Amino acid sequence: MCELLAMSANVPTDICFSFSGLMQRGGNTGPHRDGWGVTFYEGKGCRSFKDPMPSAQSPIAELVTKYPMKSEAVVCHIRQANSGAVNLENTHPFIRQMWGRNWTYAHNGQLKDFTTELPIQFHLPIGTTDSEHAFCWILDQLHITFGAKQPDYKTLFSFIANLASQIDTLGVANIIITDGEYLFAYCSNNLHWLTRRAPFGQASLIDAEVAVDFKKETTANDVVSVIATQPLTDDETWHKMSAGQWQLFCLGELVDGALIAGKLTANK
Amino acid sequence: MCELLAMSANVPTDICFSFSGLMQRGGNTGPHRDGWGVTFYEGKGCRSFKDPMPSAQSPIAELVTKYPMKSEAVVCHIRQANSGAVNLENTHPFIRQMWGRNWTYAHNGQLKDFTTELPIQFHLPIGTTDSEHAFCWILDQLHITFGAKQPDYKTLFSFIANLASQIDTLGVANIIITDGEYLFAYCSNNLHWLTRRAPFGQASLIDAEVAVDFKKETTANDVVSVIATQPLTDDETWHKMSAGQWQLFCLGELVDGALIAGKLTANK
């Protein structure tokens, strides 16, 4: 299995604190030694850092931990390989373009029979993971259903939620997907989130001797949501998502919480 | 204008030496202050490092200079913006997927009337540069002409050369494009290349007080070609490409030099 970490914020925010906790799980406090990657959005542009090396020993991870890249949306992944060899083409997150946006995808879990159950016509995978295959299948389904024009966000993410629940029937599929503006999280069996806003307090990492006082790092209007496989701090309240539940975030906030985020019938 | 640097090699080779020379031109020995990027291939996988900051002052560029990432194909670009704002989405190289491969594109030059002369249906640009638009147009033309199946490399790169010469009629278009296996270079007005092989000698950078003795860094079978806007060393013989000329490299070698690489009629 792997671990996921994502962030949605209303102002460009660095993720150094959470990232430094997660990276310890890549070969140090956790067993996820088979590579890691992170994608930072700045507007519609994004940049990724990836390494098939364990994150706890990666000079690139060290740079990302220390160099505060400010972003409104971030997706991180540390890998414990179960489908596909340990190499760069199988390292998450996966990024592809659709409708003039960069789409980023990361997956924690394992899928059976994905090559037959999720047939692909247009968006051919580069590597051999179940994860990239499922992402390509999602893009194919979006292309087939909506063509060249992106639908409104409610239609789009309800549709993606339906696709995620179909993928989830093949095994375990905790999924993060974002276009840099909206950030979608689907829980198969293991996903937590919290939103930080004023009044800000202190937080302490579980995986490293690091604490931060967000009061010193933020303004009163900042809103930042963090989504992670397992809580990263031991002195904040994390919401545990339930099987089949999905949430949509935009600019740090849950989107239309009562209206469109909710529970799908888990077809498991 | 911008500067390009690319490498094709028959063994995974680091580009630290050439890269450290090029990075000096990004705000130090050259005026290309509007960002930089580099893509390294490892097999079919690739990773990019990008920064809208000047390369001579970028902590990420410093990491890439010092951390020897070994690769068979590399594309670098430093930018002096003339089309599109200075931001991440306008920073080269551009990467998109087709036929189960990562395709990387970088451009030095400037195009007029590209939105009308290079109409796009499928591969929509994310940023606002002439360069990304032309890349999307190339992918559209490949998709329209060859569909879901990649043609043989001779057909493919002859076709791409024809597209490059059409782009070149709109202004200046020195182009590098690669799928990590083949590396294609089109010269509009400014592109040089050399191939390093045994017996290896010493080389000295023009832009920094750095010399390297390749005998100590290589084996007798290594073959490495480097393509650059301007020669990076002052004690090696660089081949200057002529207007409308293109070259294809694979595993460090010129491909079928006499057979398919050659001069197109420049429609300028």
Automatic annotation (TrEMBL), chains A, B:
Positions of the Glutamine amidotransferase type-2 domain: 2-268
Q: Is Iron among the key words of this record?
A: no
List the residue ranges forming a coiled coil, or say none: none
Under InterPro entries, the record lists:
EgtC-like, GATase_2_dom
> Which PROSITE patterns does this one have?
GATASE_TYPE_2
Q: Name one Pfam family in it.
A: GATase_4
Q: Which UniProt keywords apply?
A: Glutamine amidotransferase
Task: Answer yes or no on keyword Transmembrane helix.
Answer: no
Protein name (database record): Class II glutamine amidotransferase
